[in-house]
Amino acid sequence: MPASSLVEQSLITSITRHAAEGRPYHCLSLYRKHRKQLNGLPPSHFFPVLLKACTSLKDVETGFILHSDVVSMGLVEVDLFISTSLVDLYMKCDLAFKACQVFNKAHIRNTALWTALISGFIENGRIEEGLGYATMMEGEAIFPNAVTYVCIIRACGNIVSLGKGYETHAEVSRKGFLKENVFVGSALVDMYAKCGLLNRAKEVLDNLPIRNVCSWTALIAGYADHGYCEKAFECYEHMQSEGVSPNVTALASILKACIPQNSLDKAQELHCEIERRGLIAKEPILGSILVHLYANSGLLIKARHTFNALSEHDVVTWTALIGGNAGHGHGEIALMFFDRMRLEGGFPNPSTFACALKACACLKETKRGSKLHLELESLGLTTDNDFVGTSLVDMYVKCGLLVEAQQAFEKISNRSCEIWNALIGGYIEHERNEAAIECCKKMQLEGVYPDPITYMSMLRACRGIGSINNGMEVHSEIVRTGLLTRHPALCNSLLELYAKCGMLELTQEVFNELPIRNIFTWNSLVSGYSWADESCNIISSLEAMTLDGIEPDSVSLFTVCHAYSRSGLCTYHHRFSEVVERLGNTFPDYKHHIFMNHVPDSADNLAKVKTMVANMPSWCKRVNWTRMLSESRYLGKSSLGKHAFEFSLSNMHLSLVSLIWNTKFNERDQIKENI
């Protein structure tokens, strides 16, 4: 063999070895350096190796050189391995037009070539085109393989195309792919989960002869994404009980399930497992989710420790830490991390800026907020980004700068419902209810449909100015949209509106028509009767609530006690006191301690007052005796006033002067004689 051939063979062997051992950069570097020594005539099987290296590095420039070489050798049209490798390279580099050129010039097209083109379109988000080529492939009597089916099934899941999904499911079942290929089964589980058909996804998983971590993870992720967090936990435990060890994707999915449930115990257990496996530094996605989870839950020190343990900090992790601190009222710390991120070379994304604006709102830091506003304008993020626009308006509103909020709002080109809600909420917060109602009307004129938050704001504005006509219009609209039965908070707002406007019959009518009554709706009804001093209805509602199987809570107790303290409710004392005393033992918070003294006082049972207050904490005794001292004048209870006076005097309460000054002279003298 000539010396040149030996050198050439040695070079090809070295390049191939680098590629096989996962060193694509060295492989291509060696090829570029010694390309001329190959005389442009290496064996054809050598080019797919080089093209694969280009694909892994997305090195399209070297790919162009290789493409030119194989064209000059006349290999593109006849060598399926080369044409398939070129299509795959161009698709991975998002050059679909180049991939199609190669595909169209190929004299022979097999399943692998079609699959490279189809999967490329699907991975680049051009799903309809990918499915179109899949149909063309079948039209040319080229039969899909397992990889093709996996691509098609994933595409159906991404665009929720159940018709095509069912058809493909039937086809792979008929051809036996579900028994032979676990990846096809996993793709089907994933498709049904993404389409929200979780029972169907579980059914497919249960019937798979082999279940690997991918198929389990698809169902876990489906449960987590659709809010069935408990089922996600059960599925995760079932997977482990079958001896399947979770991979990074499975761990990420189950961690995400912990966020809406605020399942800190489960999260910390998973955190320990991740640390034990040494994944916290290797897999940034896991650390990022943990930081987000801890920050959202208010465990800010834990979030910071996890953040510091990460080998790298991406914008998502920084944003989670900044947003967590801002969301829990630590605006100064949030802005400190925002500044540190930039010092370390990180660049904020729109979500990061929104979190920084939230921190400014928390601190009422208008100067810093305005500076961020200018920066966002220079980046062009204020006109078409919902999240940023909403945060800007909200920041100015929270700082009391309604003019600036309106100006920022006007500059946003596409105003979403969330942005309108921020401005409307600002008007209401600053008691500009008429402006809020006008803003709501303008929003609808611009073709933006209100959501439940908008309707609640509108009802609150109507309540603020006693506009019952506007309120009834909103009520009709809510009923027409079908939101009333799906959003209990809207029911509460309606009940509060009618009750505060004195429309008690309408309040009761709305309440009676509710399909589901919870503690919040009952409390709204009781509050309505409390505002109107409807003593009989207050007690009846409290009793009816219990009969409905709903136990009154601390809010119920506080509301009724407050009404009782104003009106006395002496007529209903026996019915009322039993409930209040029972609930008072369940919710012994200071507000109830303060109001409970009115129960026995209204019946003039001084001994009961003394016993009850004696069992309270010392700080609460002072509050109660001082309150009774103040109110004894209005209730005409001089004996109660005397005992309150004695307790307060022994505790050096100067507020006694008020009682002595305002009490009738004969009662005042009686009290003085007993000092």
From TrEMBL:
<dbReference type="GO" id="GO:0003723">
    <property type="term" value="F:RNA binding"/>
</dbReference>
<dbReference type="Pfam" id="PF01535">
    <property type="entry name" value="PPR"/>
</dbReference>
<feature type="repeat" description="PPR">
    <location>
        <begin position="416"/>
        <end position="450"/>
    </location>
</feature>
<keyword id="KW-0677">Repeat</keyword>
<dbReference type="Pfam" id="PF13041">
    <property type="entry name" value="PPR_2"/>
</dbReference>
<dbReference type="InterPro" id="IPR011990">
    <property type="entry name" value="TPR-like_helical_dom_sf"/>
</dbReference>
<feature type="repeat" description="PPR">
    <location>
        <begin position="110"/>
        <end position="144"/>
    </location>
</feature>
<protein>
    <recommendedName>
        <fullName>Pentatricopeptide repeat-containing protein</fullName>
    </recommendedName>
</protein>
<dbReference type="GO" id="GO:0009451">
    <property type="term" value="P:RNA modification"/>
</dbReference>
<dbReference type="InterPro" id="IPR002885">
    <property type="entry name" value="PPR_rpt"/>
</dbReference>
<feature type="repeat" description="PPR">
    <location>
        <begin position="212"/>
        <end position="246"/>
    </location>
</feature>
<feature type="repeat" description="PPR">
    <location>
        <begin position="314"/>
        <end position="348"/>
    </location>
</feature>
<dbReference type="InterPro" id="IPR046960">
    <property type="entry name" value="PPR_At4g14850-like_plant"/>
</dbReference>
